[in-house]
Every structure is written in structure tokens, then in C-alpha cells.
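User: Continuing from earlier, I have the next pair ready.

Assistant: Great, send them over.

User: Here they are, in order.

Assistant: Folding the first of the pair now:
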Amino acid sequence: MDVEGLVRPVVEAAGLELVEASFHGGPGRGIVKVTVDREGGIDLETIGEVSERISRRLDLEGYDPGPYGLEVSSPGLERPLRRPDEFARRVGSKVRVRTSRPVEGARVITGTIVEAGPDEVRIATEAGERTVLFQDITAARTVFEWGPSPKPGQKQRTNAKRM
């Protein structure tokens, strides 16, 4: 049975985006992994609720690859990008892309998404803009940049007014 096809309607009915759904493992004990997200992020309560709904759906549809566990999570700070629409929603975000063949001499490109269409993505790098065909991308993910941390012994400053 197609795990993604079974869980997608449940995830979308909850107002979430299905990032990935797959079955890992084999005879014995496998894991159904479902990754969900929404604009602005997702909290544990929402993950718990959608997990219960997915579990009920799998049971009702008779999904039975043998004993398995269900793991529902968010993609985290650095999320994988697989489809053109995912790149398009992340215009302005920093990404790291691996390609099957060199693009202007590099197989790993890190930079900011400038534009994403149905066939290619344009990324601004320190060496200039690079255009990468989606068919050449082997892996891609957003890159989270940590802000500066306070120096040891100093409190982090905020913009809050003291009363």
C-alpha cells in the first residue's frame, strides 16, 4: 500500500503540509515515518493530534506490513527540499544543494534562493548567481543560520523596556 497516498488526505485535512511519508524496515518491526509542517512552524500538540488521526487511518485502511511503529515529526530547522514548489516557497532562504554534475565547477552550492521555476532554481552564492536544473539535484536542504551568541558572562540584550 502507498503510505503517502494514505496519509496525505489526513495531513491536508488538518491544515498541514505533508513533507514526506515512507516506510522503513522490513520483516520484524518497521517504522512509518511521516514528516509534516505548516507556515510558521508546528507544535507538539498538533503533531500529537495528527499522529492519532494518521494511526486511525492506517488501521481503517488495513495497512499491514507487519509490526510497525509510527513516527510523526516536523522537518526541523534544516528541512529537505525535494520538489520545485518547495523551492519556490523558500525564495529568500539559504540552501545547500548537491548536484549529480558540476554547475560552474561545483557540485555543492550554498547560497540564497533568488528564484525557483518548474525546471530550475537560481541561487545567489558568494561567487555569483548559479542556475541549477532540478533534474541535476541529488539532495537539497535549507540552512539555518544561528545568530551571534552573547559573550561569556554577559546577558543577551533585548529590545524590551525596563519598568
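And the other member of the pair:
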Amino acid sequence: MRIDVLTIFPGMFDAVLNESIIKRAQKKQKVIIKMHNLRDYTNDRHRTVDDKPFGGGPGMILKLEPIYKAIHHILGKNVAEKRKDSKVILLSPQGRKFDQQIAKRLARFKRLLLICGHYEGVDERVRNLFVDYEISIGDYILTCGELPAMVLIDAIVRLIPGVLGSRESKFRESFENNLLEYPQYTRPAVFCGMKVPNVLLSGNHKRIETWRAQQSLERTKKRRPDMLKGSKPWMKE
């Protein structure tokens, strides 16, 4: 997979891309992640990427021209063609709320281009011309779209086959099958009078699996009952 990121703050990604699982995934060539500075696609000496909104109002809007030039440069001929294996995503508070099911769908594509929103948003024509999916990571306001882009990258990369060490690990985590993960324990078996459940020490794998399934269901009912309702399909394949 290849992930391109269009941003005015490429330096923000350094720590995230050069640590832990994402770093290893790049080393193993499971994913290629490229930063593109939107200011490199401007024409004026101040490298201006924003302007005042028509009709008045607070804040500034990301301009169409630099984004237009950047996308055409990054995607080349794929801009004009129907993009079956590549998708353009705008990170925006107006988007569909990100979840594990969306992450799994996005991980199937060969290429993603993430546009990091900023200021009061982007020129609406960007949506009309290029954007396939608009995604938000939650109902709150952030300074910019770079942090949501990092969240998407982390959630998607770990789903790429061969990235995680254990083949089963990604299927036993929270939000898989619309359930939260069961309680986990490690040594010591007793600490400050708190004991690990006996079933986990029994060595009976069938009993352990049953216990874990029950715990996942009970924890989901208590903490996130909304997850048990499931979600409607959103993305077209």
C-alpha cells in the first residue's frame, strides 16, 4: 500500500512515522508513506495556501489552486481515470466518524491520498472535484487535520497483511466483530490481594475461549451498547 499525505505541517508526522509498528511496516516495505507540503504547490513568494471566504465570515479557507496542482502532481493520470484502487480522503469535522470497520475497508485499497484540512475548511470545489470520502475522528474541534491523518495511518497500517507479528492479534482486539476486548492479565497471578481469574490459569483452552467471549459481550453491553446495534454500510467497494 502507498499513503500520500497533503499537509502544510509535514514535520508533525516525523515522530509517528518513525516509531513502532509504522516504522517497521515501512522497513519491511509493506507500506510507502510520502509527505507532500501544500506550500510547494503555490505560486507567490509568500507560499500562500489560504484566503478569506467569499461572502465574509471568520477565519481563512484553504485555496483550491494549490490543492488542485498538488493532487494532479501526486496522482498523475489517476486523477482523470476512475480510481478503483486509490481513494482521496479529506480529514474534516464534517466527515463520517471513523471506526474500525472504515479502517478495514480503507486497508483494502492500494493507494490513499489524505488531505489535511485546516483553518475554517477547504474551498468546496475540492470536495466536488477530488474527494471520495470525508472522515472525522470524533465530534470535537482540533487545530488541524494532521492529527486525524496520523490516527487513520496508524489504524490502517496495522491491518495490512504481514505488518503485525501475530496473525491472530488484530482479530482479537477491541472493535472487531463489534465487541470490546476481554480483560487481560499477566504475571504475577496475585498482587495486593487481587487474583487473576482461575479460568485463565486452568490450561483449559476451550473454557478460556468461552470465558473471553462472555467477558467481551458483557463489557460491550456495559460500556458501549451502541456497538451491538452494528453499523450500516457506507463505503462503496
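Worth noting for the second one:
Residues 205-223 form the longest helix (19 residues). The longest strand covers residues 86-97.
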